[in-house]
Amino acid sequence: MSSELRFTATTQTEHLHARYTGTGHADMSKYDWLTHQHRDTSASVIGHHSLSQYLAIADNEAIGRVKFEQTERMLQPCGPPPQKDDD
What is the 3-state secondary structure (H, E, C) of 17-38? Predict the structure, then answer.
């Protein structure tokens, strides 16, 4: 019974990772996870006009400028990737 439950949980997790790329996996680094979160947030701000309006009013900027800046932040939202140790 326990092995069936584990198999089902593993299958559901694999399905989730295949369907939604931002859900992460066991080997994902903190940098990659944060990058996904920041990009998802920026995409949400760009996609939802009311969020863009809110940020435009708060920053006293045009809505187009807010969307442009959010798009630019999606390139490297957390800065350059960290050095990888190949040891």
Answer: HHHCHHHCCCCCCHHHHHHHHH
